[in-house]
Amino acid sequence: MDHATVLKNLDFTQDELTGGTLTVTSPVDGAEVAQVAELPVADMAGVIAKSQEAFKAWRTVPAPRRGELVRLLGEELRASKDALGALVTLEAGKITSEGLGEVQEMIDICDFAVGQSRQLYGLTIASERPGHKMTETWHPMGPVGVISAFNFPVAVWSWNAALALICGDPVIWKPSEKTPLTAMACQKIFDRAVARFGDDAPEGLSQLVIGGADLGAALVDSKDVPIISATGSTRMGSIVGPKVAARWGRSILELGGNNAMIVAPSADLDMAVRGIVFSAVGTAGQRCTTLRRLIVHKSIKTELVEKLKAAYASLPIGDPREDSTLIGPLVDQGALDAMQSALASAKAEGGVVFGGAAVTEGVPGGAYVAPALVEMPGQTETVKTETFVPIMYVMEYDTLDEAIELQNDVPQGLSSCIFTLNVREAETFISASGSDCGIANVNIGPSGAEIGGAFGGEKETGGGRESGSDAWKGYMRRQTSTVNYSAALPLAQGVSFDI
Ligand code: NAD
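Above: inputs. Below: predicted complex with nicotinamide-adenine-dinucleotide.
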């Protein structure tokens, strides 16, 4: 499908696509597809004030009713799945099935959030005082500022928005400046859900602000935005986190990863090869959970690397809209340059590089590259750095302790996994003395999480959790209440204070 048809299918008008100051380029062919309007930073105060107003109304709407809005959003997303998936391909360069998969993830989190809207459970707690009762209640918190990265241009908003909305919080979304069109399409889809919902959805419940880092900074600096959920590089998080903390806000940080797989001698190697290839080269290596470090037992390293080289050599690289393509483009030329520079550093540190060359034949333009596999003599500085491209560094190990130490010895702590058929190794890997990551898998790669689990990582990945499990608590404030229904006023801990 050509770019114009993709945009037409989502009802974009000429006004929306022209005359603005932000140029949108498609990674598919490098073509300029739109020039969209940016919000002046000076207008952010109005956006935030509107969100605060929306909060006052939305927090009083019963949570299951709030869930109904998210149910309608899920329905609208189902109806727009193909169209929005195609726009994700156009704007982020994902292959068709991954573009559709991203929209499916949005639908899944909506379904999850609808159920959760009837389960915002608190506790009743035994009081030490007679005639007293203690409870814990979860209340809405206020506007949530969502700052998102280019590589999951729609799913990250939905992980946050679906939960924030059922929790009673309005949302202000600042998407990546590389992917404003997908965000604008989501806003249209959201507006359709609101129109079907009825009058109890206040104006400004989910607002979109298009622009650069300065707009994000305006959200980060505002005391009227109590929660900042920021997804992106560790560099961005290292600025945002301290700023939010300094004004006593709450941040949910989802930052860079440097994810590893340990392959033990007992591993099912054919399964491991499939897991490795999808995790290392899927989305052209541009997932936060992409496999970047392969830690292989020395007894099987040669065999595994040979199998991987054979698989890498046959990977179809090209136009992400073609059904046969498995590896689409990098987001832009800057990513290709960063890849070449990381490969040069790895070589200088003793690495032996397989693949990694730019691909210019048989592609429609854009920045295409063959994924690289680099055998390293050890875990050097280049290996410890996240380069957001398809480079997988391969290292060998002797004992499991050594492998776990290597896996943990990087600044990031997002996703990790082990391939083994040995239950002692598997359980050790996911035990307290195993992987230090937010995600630790067995016999499955590090990427491609389901929405039912809490998603996020430790150390420089930021410590935030989104999506499933009890991540909803990050969008609410906890209130402990003690009710005295006796005729006396005893103090806790037996303290006496008679007047
Ligand atoms: P980026 O950090 O360049 O940009 C992310 C967002 O932050 C953009 O919207 C940008 O405008 C905004 N931003 C940048 N500086 C800011 C500042 N000082 N104040 C406020 N906002 C600011 O990241 P990117 O290149 O778009 O995405 C790739 C990175 O994102 C990788 O490191 C990847 O691992 C990470 N990522 C992490 C997750 C996760 O869940 N952990 C998910 C997706 C991507």
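Residues 96-116 form the longest helix (21 residues).
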